[in-house]
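User: I'll paste a sequence; please echo it back and then give the predicted structure.

Assistant: Echoing your sequence first, then the prediction.
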Amino acid sequence: MKYALPEENGFSIYDGLAQQSIQSFARPFPTLSLWSEPHFYFIEEREVFAYHVEKQTFISFDLPEEFQPLCIFFSDPFLLIGGKGGAKKIFAWDPVRNVHLPVDHPNVLKKFRKSIDDFFVWKDHIYALDNHIHPKYLLKYVQTEVQMQLLEQIRLPSQTPEERMYRSFMVGDLLVVLSKSSHRAGSTTYISLYRDFQCIRTLHWHKVPGFGSELSDIYDIQFYETRLFLSTNLGLGILELHESMQEEEVQLFREYKKIHQIIPLSQKKCILVIKKHSLTWMQIDLS
């Protein structure tokens, strides 16, 4: 795998297998990035780039000015971009032919403030996480040569009407969802497990003003096999994924704070992008 890592005057493409940078750019650190051979994809504000690593060539296109990209995903041969703002919430682009694939947009996506915050694949179908405004849906797509065709809208049970979902992925037959909600007493972060799109387990952490010494916020979640890597208000967290997991099972590494991004390399190793005065990175071993 290859990743974008910050440098003093830009960013580099880092080869995780070779454990070295293979190309540097004097450009801002990308908002989103993704490797899918032979291209390294990244987004700067609203410009989407496909960089061919071997040929060292770029191709790009501009997203609409009103659109804010929130997630990217590769489904051969298309790069999928989800976000919010404007009439379209999903874009599908083939950089080899430089063509765009039409995407079905159901009426539910046309509501004010709706957004697409993540994609995943399950049983040969692409699912887009429709978010932010109640009710929430998983949009089930099939990719054909002529369009991204919507097959089904699956209403996803949520914790509260105000819940916002930030991350979703499949581990085996379990759908893992990171979400948050706000209320008069503060806010709550959830990690929920779904099987066949029915919630079977939810962990929650409450954030109450004036009580900052407890684990209360999870900003991002990544995984390697069955180990979850958490970016939290108290540092890096590790949680083993199983159906009866508990909140107190989170193992905290408080020395790693202000985490901008987590890149798992194995069950025990990961790269952390840290944001202090500027972005830096480190590789750590949790053995």
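The mean pLDDT is 90. The first strand starts at residue 2 and ends at 7.
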